[in-house]
Write a structure and sequence with these properties.
2 copies of one chain form a homodimer. With about 425 residues, chain A is of the alpha/beta class. Chain A has 2 domains: about 5-225 and about 405-415, Aldehyde Dehydrogenase, Chain A, domain 1 (3-Layer(aba) Sandwich), CATH 3.40.605.10; about 230-380, Aldehyde Dehydrogenase, Chain A, domain 2, CATH 3.40.309.10. In chain A, about 40% of the residues lie in helices and about 20% in strands. The first copy, chain A, contains 14 helices and 16 strands. Chain A has helices at about 5-25, 25-40, 45-60, 65-70, 75-90, 130-140, 155-170, 185-190, 210-215, 240-250, 270-285, 295-300, 335-345, 355-365, and strands spanning about 100-105, 110-115, 120-125, 145-150, 180, 200-205, 230-235, 260-265, 290, 310, 325-330, 350-355, 370-375, 395, 405, 410-420. Chain A has a 7-stranded parallel beta sheet with strand order 10-9-11-8-7-12-13, sandwiched between helices. Chain A has a 4-stranded parallel beta sheet with strand order 5-4-3-6, with helices on both faces. At the A-B interface, helix 1, strand 2, helix 10, helix 14 and strand 13 of A face helix 1, strand 2, helix 10, helix 14 and strand 13 of B. Strand 16 (about 410-420) of chain A pairs parallel with strand 13 (about 370-375) of chain B, so a sheet runs across the interface.
């Protein structure tokens, strides 16, 4: 069977299964999720063996250590897949929720009902645990899913897929509700993203290159997460202790996450007073400071070593460093801060530190990013911290879903009308 | 200037203006809308003259009467454009609305704020009043807009555009907030739908051909309205009087609208009892009945004239007739009705007529369409009837906006976080 025929068959089966999953009861979906978790625990040895095969091939192919790390499924990793499935089972079912009912002058009552999107295509890279996580979120939100993992993780993904299928079967749900593509042919991705008749939305999880390519070529809507060039703006009226703590946490708690701050903006009025302590704190943690001329002068005077200071260049304002590097700019005030962010940010997450109410509210309203915060660390931009219970990704789009995407982002709302024989006049 | 350069310049100006409009106060936006309405009334003679020029050219080019009709701007039509602007001014401003605030264990409060999408591209055909309607909805929802009307309406649209610009200027808003493309070159549409750096969403309004072409070629999300193949299902437990009234209104109140019913499904158990009256009512209004063999037999026995009866063919189940024609099928019960609708419907609007609670709720939940109704006419699927106050179109998509799209559909929600110095642990 050629790839096109194979993917069309996968798509057709997913579309058919999606109706059964959309109509499935909360009980059936939870039963499937708990059965999947039990299967994963029961088959732990088989999962380890499959993962071992992937790891041997990866080492033979000379994959880099970071990739090997993401590919590795430890005993603990297997247990957390099972726990993750159980956590999703415990979340409220979003499907069928009726809201916003209003009675209209015609006598009908109009409202909305939350419904699944249909078939979701997930495209990801080396991490095999995404197979279980994505399966859980798609199923609980009443969607069928087509999962396409990285070729490095093929055996691990297939072993997890067996547990998923067993769980679906245990709950009497169609096994085609969650399909894991079992070819490593890259053409499968090209087919998956160009079958609007079978796939309603694509969620790519991976590097910026993968996501840009998929967005460019897809004929299906894509919920995409590009980069996270997050900002903290320390306003003229910032509390110095809060500013120091928020910059420290936003930049240095973890360097590799998308909600890590990459640029610091400081109001000129308090830069001489507040920037020294911030600079010394960052330098003490071996963060490289790429500073504008004005902040460079303040940081030098404050005693930050030249080895950790560098004059910022234009490209630093747009860069997602994902490393112990921060860009620093002194701005004339709130207007320049907002203008700078709306120009250079990737519209992921930005925070202001201020005690001034009006400035805080202007920042909240005028900054055009998926998450905008007052006096809090950008590291909070996360599905779990926001209370979504789980997260399929963080969207930097504006259409449909913005910011952390949980079960709700995998659903839509239809209009519902309750009448008693009304007709339109 | 070539078309690409021209459209890029329009796009760049729209993007810049969109920030000012997003931050504009409700007062400023309403002031602009009311000033636009006043300009339209003041310049009524000039608008009529511009429209007359378009009409003369249209007649010279031999445009069909229906197109001439859509192009015509009567005195009454000009007054209703002005009234429409005033109605949008009177609607609540959706921008900045904060909802769903919840306190999290970390101490932060997380919620959502409604925000404009940015720049909206509207592509439409002959009706010049869309220029004023779309301008009003985009401005009130805090968006910049690029409007591209049909070439037949060029002079009318430019005359309306002058009123729009005068209104923006009167409120101190940038004139580039609403731009009307002033070239008739079709390449302008191709450029508009492939500038994701300047345009956030495209709303096409027009025939299915236009919308399909735009959806296929766009590199920007499209809120699309394809066809309306709406269904009424008369269930075994239907109240006969309600069934008759709802079928009559759904099919015959207006034949050319997208929420008109095109297919009637009747439960086999009550078809012999209820279909005769429905068939005679429809035949009495000169509606052609394209019936499945079983319904054909009942209708013949009931005395419906052969001239109005035709055996349905497969393509009738998918057809949007937009005419006094209805497809009729007898189904074995609710399951077959839902299966038929989910197979053939364009997912616009469907209604069940039943007194049975469980069947009504199953229909509501399992039918996968933008609007699903119990005991009400499909003709209610409309932004005004739903209480949206105005409507930019009806979406048959599932992503972002579904069904009638009002001001809310032209906005998104960002996450907002209120903290007091919290950092993530």
């Amino acid at each position: 069977m050629d790839i096109k025929t194979y993917m069309q068959s996968v798509g057709r089966q997913a579309r058919a299964a999606s109706r059964a999953v959309a109509a499935a009861s909360t009980d059936a979906k939870n039963k499937a999720l708990l059965a999947m978790a039990a299967e994963i625990r029961t088959r732990q040895a088989a999962l380890s063996a499959a993962n071992q095969r992937d790891l041997e091939e990866a080492r033979a192919n000379g994959l880099e250590p970071a990739m090997i790390d993401r590919l590795t499924l430890s005993e603990k990793g297997i247990e957390s897949m099972a726990l993750g499935l159980e956590q999703v089972a415990a979340l409220p079912d979003p499907v069928g929720e009726m809201t916003d009912l209003k009675r209209r002058p015609s006598g009908i009552s109009v409202g909305k009902m939350r419904v699944p999107l249909g078939v979701i295509g997930i495209i990801y890279e080396a991490r095999p645990n995404v197979t279980a996580d994505a399966a859980a979120l798609c199923l609980k939100s009443g969607n069928a899913a087509i999962l396409r993992g990285g070729k490095e993780a093929l055996h691990s993904n297939q072993a997890i897929a067996e547990c998923v299928r067993a769980g679906l079967a245990a709950a009497g749900l169609p096994e085609a509700a969650i399909q894991v593509v079992d070819t490593t042919d890259r053409a499968a991705v090209g087919e998956l993203i160009t079958m609007p008749q079978f796939v309603d939305v694509i969620v790519p999880r991976g590097g910026k290159g993968l996501i840009e390519r998929i967005s460019r070529e897809a004929r299906v809507p894509v919920i995409k997460h590009l980069d996270g060039n997050c900002h903290v703006y320390v306003d003229e009226f910032a509390d110095p202790a809060k500013a120091l703590a928020i910059v420290e946490n936003s930049k240095t708690q973890r360097y590799g996450t998308c909600n890590t701050t990459e640029s610091l903006l400081v109001d000129a009025a308090i830069a001489p007073a507040q920037l020294p302590a911030i600079g010394i704190m960052l330098a003490g943690k071996d963060v490289e400071l790429r500073a504008c001329p004005a902040s460079l002068a303040i940081l030098r005077t404050a005693g930050v070593a030249d080895a950790q200071l560098k004059e910022a260049v234009e490209s630093d304002w747009s860069e997602e460093f994902l490393a112990p590097i921060i860009a620093i700019k002194i701005v004339a005030g709130l207007d320049e801060a907002i203008e700078h962010i709306n120009t250079y940010s990737s519209q992921h997450t930005e925070a202001i530190v201020t005690e001034n109410y009006t400035r805080a509210m202007r920042f909240l309203r005028e900054v055009d990013s998926a998450s905008v915060m007052i006096n809090a660390s950008t590291r909070f931009a996360d599905g779990f911290e926001y209370g979504l219970g789980a997260e399929i990704g963080i969207s930097t789009d504006k259409i449909h879903a913005r910011g952390p995407v949980g079960l709700e982002g995998l659903t839509s709302q239809k209009w519902i009308v309750f009448g008693d024989g009304q007709v339109r006049s």
